[in-house]
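Re: that backbone. Tokens:
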């Protein structure tokens, strides 16, 4: 049986936007948009917010998620990895409640435009594989258009073979991880130590649902997108 652990990592510290994860976005805390999408998708056996901040934990509980532990400080600094945070949650649930899961669904709270339908679609794909599914979108600018600097300060193609591909129609497909959805079999995560192992399957999302909140400008754009959708 597939048992999916939904996990939302939300530490308190944020250099770019103070208290980012509970910052107001269109009338709700930023993290609310992810919690609501996850709950509405109805794919998770448990939905847990992993945080080092009691205020975030309280907000998460009020919104219907669980926050059964406060994440250790060693897993809440700038060097802590998503892998270590996920493994801590999996181990905690196993040790305290003897619960095991087939898959872990990692949902970053900085992707507020991802929908319940997106989560359901990614999970349907994941249930057919023993590896991983990650959400991606087409990049704003194709990598073939990127440049680098030579030692003399002049521009050069970042990807040398781009010089042989003058027309956009001839560019190969390119996708960027958008950070919205990562779902992986727990056994695969333990073995491969990465959320994108060999033969990871993409779940392609449109750019308008792929915004990742990192700056105040991102927050502004997300709010405009949400308000515009509310008017339709």
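Recovered sequence:
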């Amino acid at each position: 049986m597939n048992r999916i652990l939904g996990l939302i990592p939300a530490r308190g510290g944020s250099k770019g936007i103070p208290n980012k994860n509970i910052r107001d976005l269109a009338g709700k805390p930023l993290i609310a948009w992810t919690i609501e999408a996850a709950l509405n998708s109805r794919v998770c056996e448990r939905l847990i917010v992993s945080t080092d901040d009691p205020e975030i934990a309280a907000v998460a509980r009020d919104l219907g998620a669980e926050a059964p532990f406060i994440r250790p400080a060693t897993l809440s600094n700038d060097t802590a990895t998503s892998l270590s945070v996920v493994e801590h949650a999996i181990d905690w649930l196993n040790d305290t409640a003897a619960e095991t899961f087939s898959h872990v669904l990692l949902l970053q709270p900085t992707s507020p435009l991802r929908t319940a339908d997106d989560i359901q679609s990614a999970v349907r794909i994941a249930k057919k594989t023993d590896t991983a599914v990650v959400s991606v979108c087409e990049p704003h600018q194709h990598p073939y258009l990127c440049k680098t600097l030579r030692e003399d300060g002049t521009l050069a193609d970042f990807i040398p073979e781009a010089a042989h591909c003058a027309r956009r129609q001839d560019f190969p497909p390119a996708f960027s991880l958008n950070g919205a959805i990562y779902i992986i079999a727990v056994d695969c995560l333990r073995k491969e130590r990465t959320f994108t192992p060999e033969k990871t399957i993409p779940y392609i999302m449109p750019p308008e649902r792929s915004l990742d909140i990192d700056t105040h400008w991102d927050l502004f754009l997300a709010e405009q997108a949400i308000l515009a959708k509310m008017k339709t």
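The mean pLDDT is 93. The first strand starts at residue 4 and ends at 9.
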